[in-house]
Amino acid sequence: MRVAKQHRKLYSTEVKQVQDKILTDILIVGGGPAGLTLASAIKSSPLLKHYKTTLVDATPISSSLPTFYEKASSDEQFPFTNRVVSITPRNMDFLTADLNLPLMFNRIQPFDGICISDGLSDFNTLTMDRDSMGYMVELLNLQSSAHQKILELNEKFIDPNEKIQIIDNCKVLDIKSPTVEDNAETNLCSDAWPEVELDNGQIFKTRLLIGCDGFNSPVRKFANIDSLGWFYNKWGVVATMKLECPPFSQIRGWQRFLPTGPIAHLPLPNDNATLVWSTTPELSQLLTKVPAPVFAKLVNAAFLLEDGDMQYYYNKLRQVNDLSNENDPIYSEMIEDINYRMEDKSEHITKFYGKNDMYFLEENYPPTVVDIQDKSRARFPMKMFHCNTYVAPRVALVGDAAHATHPLAGQGLNMGLGDSMSLVKALEQASSRGLDLGQTDFVLNEYWKERYGTNMMLLGITDKLHKLYGSSNPIVTTARQFGVSVLNNIGGLKSLMMNIVSGPK
Q1: CA 157 → CA 43, 101, 154, 387, distances in Å?
Q2: What are the residue ranges in the chain where pLDDT is below 70?
Q3: Rounded to two decimals, what is the model's pTM?
Q4: I need a labelling partner for 256 at 20 to 30 A (CA). Which of 162, 165, 291, 299 fits?
Q5: Is residue 493 situated within a structural domain?
């Protein structure tokens, strides 16, 4: 009983000022989807809600996120943003059933499968169909909904120390670990609490420091956690597109592996779609600068025409003096040629399958892109990295601070949400047993052990797929064709692949 009383005193959540330093139990650095979702999960937990929790972000999320939420939830014509992710059914249950986030469902699109093709082998298509295989969600929808949930939770807490304190528009200047003797003066613990200095002059001493601060994580640098990985020398081009959908079209995602990198075409509500086109650094610059009508034609061509055709168009783009000049005659020549080749290709496929089988043709190629949303195109570098561990004394890493992956399998944010669920579970177990939340053994290591293997598997599969489909070697191409044929004809293997992409059924 004496030990239990000591723990209760030790974990009092009353905020105290010690030598101009503010004490907090949990300090989350990063107010992106991972950080805000984790904060919501902590404050939604009966076992964790009494811990003083602070969230710090460098951007003005307290003003920008409510503004987006208000406009997007009230205006059906409000444009879709270009940062869109696929959420698995399990993670959607976590967000809706467990956390009860007020997501804007009118801006979320469930899809019932994905069609994957090889840009070097016609008619070699892998189809994976499953009801509600995943959900396409804007990152800002998730981020603003989690912020909205935090505001709702804060209104319910009577004790001000139970409210989540959000300090935004404020950067982390320094993180250091003071001496054990310095911490002993607080009479709260016997080992060093990290001190986080902000550019607004505040210094926080925290029992547990959680890095949700992305690839260039200051928290990871402070903890001296090593990582392994590389940049792919590929860039992703994103855009929001308007489609012309036939009435019988399935709501599915589309992906084609081109020699320059995969291109993915994923559904959004109201005949909209989001694009992620992985390509070379040079081509990514060209594709973000060409006029929208030309870009739309190139997207359509990339899903149907051969690599030789695409290389011809890329060379044409290199000849344009002013890429923004929509009236350049090279563009007119390109569009005319694309239309001719696309029509010829469609007639060939229809003849191959039979004119009465147009349904099959339409259902094995994505709907036509007819427009590109203004200012929605952007580019970002592709990379893969993985930390050797996610934890250190009084430190835990979550999401992109711990791992990053190529987006071809749509697992980036799903891995981060899995991290959040696992970390909350480990902290709940620690709280119920009277353990120190920042303790590595028996607390933080439980989180790392549960997540590391799963994330390593997903990172490895994604990396191998990227390298496998990035090869033009005839032997590798033949092996790919054989592998797709095997997957299409053996239900158990295809189910295993779908479980990796969307989670167990």
Answers
A1: 10, 17, 5, 36
A2: 1-19, 119-124, 179-190, 246-249, 347-364, 408-410, 464, 466-505
A3: 0.87
A4: 291
A5: no
